[in-house]
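Exercise 7. Predict the structure of 2'-5' RNA ligase from Micromonospora polyrhachis.
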Amino acid sequence: MDRTDGTPEVGIAMTQVGIAVDIPEPWGSYLTRRRAEAGDPQATFVPAHLTLLGPTEIPLASLPVVEERLAEVAVAHPSYTLHLRGTGTFRPVTEVVFVTVAAGISECEQLAAAIGAVPELQREHRFPYHPHVTVAQDVAPEALDQVYEDLAGFSARFEVAAFTLFSHSGEARWQPRRDFRLGG
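Solution. The predicted structure, encoded as tokens:
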């Protein structure tokens, strides 16, 4: 049970979860490799993805309920086409370069909002939701500039038929826990 200040009680087993759309092959490994080549150490732990819910700490015991609610969210949203094209950046606010979403933006926003409305997953956000695929973060400015230019012509179009719940122990790569098929 949470204390009145919103922090978990001592002794409650916690886990970190995230929810994302995997970027399929051949693009997923290509974008992950480009992130590693830019010198981004997160490339080792985080495969290419489009985030729907960023890292969120929840009680381990709440995972079954979270999974039930995510299944309800998935059934209520149809599959859609995602078109990734070109690059963008959040600089100077944050040192991030990303591949932009050219089509499928509203579908990502609606799905992210529905996931974020799951009571166990509600949290404060540092920035408004902006669907994208990070390809470099917190690396030298020259590396950010290089990946921004190198991937400016990138384009991939694919069907998003599911999203994935990932968990993280803090010691290794994010691990897929369960896929949720859209539209049932």
